[in-house]
């Protein structure tokens, strides 16, 4: 019997765009499952485990569970998990019925904060100059970033033709100069399939193709663009001669993460530092403690720069939206001048407080059409501030 040389195939059902310009895993009805399993949804990925973990012991503080904001946000149908850790003690922990302590969760844009640690160290060592333009490190970069300074990229202070408005900016127009939406970036991340007949492209192909007539920001408001973080990762590779993977290994080992730190990569194997990480709630808190310790790893070696982290929370950076008007975007983090943190798309947040060496990790999954709610995001931040306030001197 003859064997067929060509077999019929179908597009991967998780990654195919089915409606509302969304891949199947990110539809409202399937998003929760997608976020709980994103570590195995993307086409490419890598995982890292630390050789030495930071052990945690329970020292439950009942005051946390009695906070009205904590009660409200941990009892909704969209809640997944929350962990509060101080030094090496778990002060609070809660999980949804369909989630557990050992399950990794997508942290989305919280992933960006790793570049504060990596770039901060390179600035301290003199390998990166904040006022230097991107094209000095990446000569082949396009006009979307070429004349932007490293500091502008760190602070989400660059203007180009990328638009990260999840409600309005979706476009599949690949023509040069067209406004580019997040869905185009998702193709480079391996989180959706390209339109029929269009080849795949890498994250660096994507950021290099962005254009701008003038990268300067006419306001002091944050201009949020996830590709900024991928540019920073590219710079870090160029100046160190190390792979971004190896640089992330240092971060994971410095945090003493217990489980698997999973990171999506593009088809070239480059980590998607703009939003590709997944980990457990406890491990996200362990990771947050790196910031609370001002970059000091569990092995006693500096993973980030204490000076850079102090400057990060020194009333600098761009203004965040009206719903977060007490917060600035500074060096790939949010800060109110005390804590350092970052939200993740659809309902995650990490807060690290160096003053009390406390980290708050929170997971949830919005199931609205665009999964974007600035008021809800601000509510999570306020809740984490309520927790940290319990440990104010």
Please provide the ordered H/E string of secondary-structure elements.
Answer: EEHEEHHEEEHHEEHHHHEEHHEEEEEEH
In terms of DSSP E residues, the strand content is 15-25%
Given helix and strand content, the structural type is alpha+beta
Largest sheet features: 9 strands, mixed
What do we call the CATH homologous superfamily of one domain? DD-peptidase/beta-lactamase superfamily
CATH architecture of one domain: 3-Layer(aba) Sandwich
Q: Bin the helical content.
A: 25-40%
**Can you tell me the CATH class of one domain?**
Alpha Beta
CATH topology of one domain: Beta-lactamase
If helices are DSSP runs of H or I spanning 4 or more residues, what is the number of helices? 12
In order across it, which strands form the biggest sheet? 4-6-5-17-16-15-14-13-12
Q: What does the average pLDDT come to?
A: 94
| Overall spatial form | globular
- Kindly report how far apart the N and C termini lie: 80 Å
List its traits.
alpha+beta, 17 strands, 17% strand, nine-stranded mixed sheet, single chain, four-stranded antiparallel sheet, 393 residues, globular, Beta-lactamase, 28% helix
Offer a concise description of the structure.
The chain is of the alpha+beta class and 393 residues long.
């Amino acid at each position: 019997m003859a064997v067929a040389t060509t077999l019929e195939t179908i597009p991967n059902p998780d990654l195919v765009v089915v409606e509302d310009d969304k891949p199947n895993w990110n539809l409202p009805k399937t998003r929760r499952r997608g976020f709980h399993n994103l570590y195995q949804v993307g086409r490419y990925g890598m995982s890292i485990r630390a050789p030495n973990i930071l052990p945690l012991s329970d020292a439950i503080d009942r005051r946390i569970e009695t906070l009205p904001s904590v009660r409200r946000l941990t009892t909704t149908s969209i809640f997944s998990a929350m962990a509060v850790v101080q030094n090496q003690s778990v002060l609070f922990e809660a999980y949804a019925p369909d989630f557990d302590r050992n399950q990794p969760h997508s942290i989305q844009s919280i992933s960006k904060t790793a570049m504060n640690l990596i770039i901060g160290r390179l600035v301290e060592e003199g390998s990166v100059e904040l006022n230097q333009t991107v094209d000095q490190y990446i000569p082949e970069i396009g006009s979307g970033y070429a004349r932007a300074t490293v500091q502008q990229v760190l602070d989400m202070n660059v203007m180009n033709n990328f638009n990260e408005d999840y409600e309005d900016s979706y476009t599949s127009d690949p023509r040069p100069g067209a406004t580019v939406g997040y869905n185009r970036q998702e193709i480079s991340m391996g989180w959706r399939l390209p339109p029929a007949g269009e080849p795949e492209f890498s994250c660096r192909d994507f950021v290099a193709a962005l254009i701008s007539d003038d990268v300067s920001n006419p306001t002091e408001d944050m201009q949020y663009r996830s590709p900024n973080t991928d540019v920073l990762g590219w710079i870090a590779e160029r100046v160190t001669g190390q792979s971004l993977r190896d640089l992330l290994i240092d971060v994971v080992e410095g945090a003493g993460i217990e489980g698997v730190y999973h990171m999506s990569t593009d088809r070239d194997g480059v980590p998607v530092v703009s939003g590709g990480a997944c980990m457990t709630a406890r491990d996200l808190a362990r990771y947050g403690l790196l910031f609370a310790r001002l970059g000091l790893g569990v092995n006693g070696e500096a993973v980030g720069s204490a000076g850079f982290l102090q400057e990060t929370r020194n009333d600098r950076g761009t203004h965040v939206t009206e719903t977060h008007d007490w917060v600035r975007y500074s060096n790939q983090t949010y800060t109110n001048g005390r804590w350092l943190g970052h939200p993740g798309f659809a309902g995650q947040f990490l807060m690290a407080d160096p003053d009390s060496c406390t980290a708050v990790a929170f997971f949830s999954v919005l199931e609205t059409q665009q999964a974007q709610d600035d008021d809800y995001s601000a509510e999570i931040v306020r809740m984490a501030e309520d927790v940290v306030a319990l440990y104010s001197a």
